[in-house]
Amino acid sequence: MDKQTLSYTDESLLGKTITLNNCDREPIHIPGAIQPYGFLLCLDEYTQRIVQASANTETYLGQPAESLIGGGLDRVLAPDQQAKVEALLGSLGTAPQLLGVRLDPVAGRPYFKIIMHRYDGVLWLEFEPVDHLEGAPLDLPFLNAALGQMLAAGSVLEFCQHTVDQVRALTGFDRVAIYRFAADESGEVIAEAKRDDLDPWLGIHYPATDIPQQARAMYLKNWLRFIPDAGYAPVPLVPVRNPVSSRPPDMTYAVLRSVSPIHLEYLRNMGSAATMTISLIQNGKLWGMVTCHHLSPRLVSYELRDLCQFIGKTFSALLASKEQLDNTEYQLRITERQSELFEHVTVSGQNNFVDGLCRYTPTLQDVFDCGGAAVCFNDEIVTLGTTPTPDQIRDLLVWLQVHVPEEVFSTSSYAALNPAGLAIRASASGIIAASLADAPGNYLLWFRPEQVRTVTWAGQHEKNQTLVDGQVFLSPRQSFEAWKQLVENTAAPWRPVELEAAKEIRLRISDIRLKVFNELQSRARSLTRLNAELARSNDDLDSFAYVASHDLKEPLRGIHNYSLFLLEDYADKLDEEGVHRLQTLVRLSQRMESLIESLLQLSRVGRAELELEEVNLNEVLEEVSELLQLRFEETQTQLIVRHKLPTIMADRIRMQEVFSNLLSNAMKYNDRPEKVIRVGEAAIELFPAINRDELYVFYVQDNGIGIDPRHQTNIFKLFKRLHTPDKYGGGTGAGLAIVKKMVEKHGGLLWVDSQPGQGATFYFTIPKISR
Q1: The pTM is what?
Q2: How far is it, in rounded angstroms, from Cα 209 to Cα 712?
């Protein structure tokens, strides 16, 4: 038996009444009973004789459990079926093996699925009745689409939402939710898919005690637990104790294992008649669970449960990468806002750094997630967002000077350190305080409100019935109240990246106030060194461009040409697979050459200086349309230019490339028989916020497939495609990234307005400048 399980349970409670006072020590791994939607036979691992059976065998087999003890599988199975089972018994481990059989010796010859494993010196044969021997075929298209969604998810929350949608689609449960554990082992529902008429659970929090430690230990071993009918009466084993070990067998890996009566009562109080739970595990620890609920009993086949378990394991394998995406995105956002804030501070100068922190966007408050911020300098307090009052902040400053020697201090529960914190917990349960060097009483402060005030109860507020025969039972509403008691006066914890950002901001402000000649001189030397390194890096980039355009492209052409020669000369000597592989080699070499060309083009755009001149955009558009004329005719595309375009100061070649890329995309991403592209200068009333004395606004509009708004930022990223490489004519995904860089090089902006199936309009601005 596992030592970890032993440390959480008390086997002396076996057979005794389980209450709220002892359920945290309940030996749930040895209940001595099963759920009655199937029956169980326990075989001695050496003799392969039946040593225990569930008391409901008479219901399924017409034979009482007592009559089976000491017998063999011939009491249940025909000789051919018995041989199949016995052939598997020797290789069993904790991982289950599945076999579909017809019980020929039983009246009616019913079908069952036998789920077999070996554990605790016992061969476990769990029988689940089914309508027919063969399970439903594996839906590979669904599974492929599901895994594709999980892989493509750009954040943990999106990843979780895809997962609950998929599990609900597979199983048909009324509600499927993901429950994530916090560092203190409390939990929160962060994603759900449900029937429209059910109240949402999103944001509901539960205390750690709702899932006892022994249950968590079992979730780490057995990935899935299933209860098709929460109103069941447990069926005992006969005998309850294994004759060999003189104790109940360890049912950790048993599918039919009966669960805690406290848990069943909890489910009934939730209104849940059937549940399935899938563990989500990261680095050997329970990260969370997929929890499924149904308002009526629901039997889900073993094959579907196994597929859901596969989804849970896939989720667990991909989770770290999704969390890294979230962390990287948040860190990048902090870094970007920090850089902008430093620019404001630098422009404001040494004497007006407070203006740089507070007057312009982003402010000190905007750098990372918080409720409010304050700059305390020379007895003045400037606040941003939701903060304590100035007098309360002054009291906080006094406390900091007496009790906090650190340059940067943080807490998620100020009230736990200072009773005066109770008065400001609504806005400042969590605090980061960064002292400004050589300036007593001068601080940068960030505040977070009490966490419980930021959580909205998403379910019904009335309490469920909690008193039955004088015994109190847990309910979801009670659990939320228990969680509230645990986190009162406490804010969401500060993340390490936020504390690092506070330290960096403090150092930057301190530098501004404490500049001395030696520091400036040191930084000047550092800048000189960095410039020299940058120059060397640019030389390296030039060398890379040369190698990529010559040394790399030449062997690629060789690979491409020799592949074509092989196809021409030996296609009739190769089988279909060989020809296919050569064709794939040709296609991949062409794609690699396109990628290298796109990288080179993007590099040239970023580093080459613009050659500004007066450019007649009508002439530019006419030149581009002439080059694309054949493609217009092939794709039946009509180009319409609205009104005469102006003459602007720009780089003529770059403008040609901008229009060429946008027109090519408008043709490519269009599945209509008659394609229409409109080009023109946007009407003034469309963008009242844009100063038309300073900017031109142009558009390229198509009637194509359109772009979902949630993807409209990603399409401008390098090599970012919203389709497979072989769809819509392929492509490298670099075109819009190049257009964006060209427009920004001119000092303009590029954006898109689109809906799926309604075409897309790309707008870009060019500054109005004179020679």
Answers
A1: 0.57
A2: 44
